[in-house]
């Protein structure tokens, strides 16, 4: 029975997820596969490289660095989160990503992107660790308006959350029967229609199917939430959610705010740790 880990996005709300993942890593829990969307991919890759603490560490260190995330970066490069500095300089010079551990870990890792020409999800399995791998993770987390369209291997892609925000159904379809699902919104959350659609229609005017996907994203997301609830009731999924709305926005330049959200995640991870171990059926200590 394949054990999976499903991580939704949520930009800086993903630090809640990072806190849970660090508790799981420290406990030696080894799922067979992980699928991450947006921040779920950007922070979840540290699970495969076995680097607890890394996601919080570099976000706090560069929180106020204009090279990392700033309107200056957006004006200069078209990306709010600077593509080169964030995904190529930091992991190779400042907070080294363990490429060797990533490749040696047999855990399957999939980053979800959205094909802007079709409006459909694209599931990229990442095995080797190289600059292209970093760019696929970047693409998964490249939010419309805040990022340029990313062109990789003949495909134009953006944020995976547009087309498949909580890819539990997909993961089940490829054989993952028992999945821990980490959400970044509390129980009862209902996504509303995107109020920025007028701007989206202008920015993405070359990609009508992407516009359509954006326009219907709230419907897709709420349907996926219901699917998660059904899987939870059926015992196929163990779902971890924040108890309340997380005290952070999509973007943050406040290291203390980041730490608070991460700590909320750690508390949730510690609370659910025994349940996760029991749900998976075994763990390696």
- State the end-to-end distance: 20 Å
Radius of gyration, whole Å: 17 Å
Q: Unreliable stretches, pLDDT < 50, 5 or more residues?
A: none
**Main beta sheet: strand number and arrangement?**
8 strands, mixed
- The counted number of beta strands is 8
| Percentage of residues in strands | 15-25%
**Which structural class is indicated by helix and strand composition?**
alpha/beta
Number of helices in the DSSP assignment: 12
Secondary-structure blueprint:
Elements: E1 2-7, H1 14-26, E2 33-37, H2 39-48, H3 54-61, H4 71-77, H5 83-94, H6 99-104, E3 108-115, E4 120-125, H7 131-140, E5 150-152, E6 155-159, H8 168-173, E7 176-182, H9 197-203, H10 208-215, H11 217-234, E8 237-240, H12 255-280
Parallel strand pairs: 1-2, 1-7, 2-3, 7-8
Antiparallel strand pairs: 3-4, 3-6, 5-6
Question: What can you tell me about this protein's structure?
Answer:
Helix content is about 45%, strand content about 15%. The two termini are about 20 Å apart. The longest helix has 26 residues, at about 255-280. The mean pLDDT is about 95. By secondary structure, the chain is α/β, with parallel strands linked by helices. It has helices at about 15-25, 40-50, 55-60, 70-75, 85-95, 100-105, 130-140, 170-175, 195-205, 210-215, 215-235, 255-280; strands at about 1-5, 35, 110-115, 120-125, 150, 155-160, 175-180, 235-240. The chain is built from 12 helices and 8 strands. The protein is globular. Strands 1, 2, 3, 4, 5, 6, 7 and 8 form an 8-stranded mixed sheet that branches.
């Amino acid at each position: 029975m394949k054990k999976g880990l499903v991580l939704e996005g949520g930009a800086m709300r993903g630090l809640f997820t990072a806190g849970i993942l660090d508790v799981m890593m420290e406990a030696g829990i080894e799922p067979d596969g992980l699928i991450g969307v947006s921040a779920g991919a950007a922070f979840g890759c540290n699970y495969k490289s076995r680097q607890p603490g890394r996601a919080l560490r570099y976000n706090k260190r560069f929180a106020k660095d204009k090279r990392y995330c700033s309107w200056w970066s957006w004006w200069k490069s078209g990306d709010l989160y600077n593509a080169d500095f964030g995904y190529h300089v930091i992991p190779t010079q400042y907070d080294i990503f363990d490429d060797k551990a990533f490749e040696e870990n047999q855990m399957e890792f999939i980053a979800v992107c959205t094909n802007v020409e079709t409006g459909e999800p694209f599931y990229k399995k990442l095995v080797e660790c190289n600059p292209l791998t970093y760019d696929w993770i970047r693409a998964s987390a490249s939010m419309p308006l805040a990022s340029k369209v990313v062109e990789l291997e003949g495909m134009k892609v953006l944020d995976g959350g547009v087309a498949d925000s909580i890819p539990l159904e997909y993961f089940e379809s490829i054989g993952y029967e028992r999945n821990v699902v980490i959400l970044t919104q509390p129980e009862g959350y209902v996504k509303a229609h995107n109020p920025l659609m007028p701007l989206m229609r202008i920015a993405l005017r070359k990609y009508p199917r992407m516009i359509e996907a954006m326009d219907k994203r709230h419907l897709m997301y709420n349907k996926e939430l219901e699917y998660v609830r059904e899987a939870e009731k059926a015992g196929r999924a163990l779902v971890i959610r924040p108890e309340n709305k997380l005290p952070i926005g999509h973007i943050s330049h406040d290291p203390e705010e980041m730490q608070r959200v991460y700590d909320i995640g750690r508390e949730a991870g510690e609370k659910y740790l025994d349940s996760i171990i029991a749900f998976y059926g075994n763990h390696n200590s």
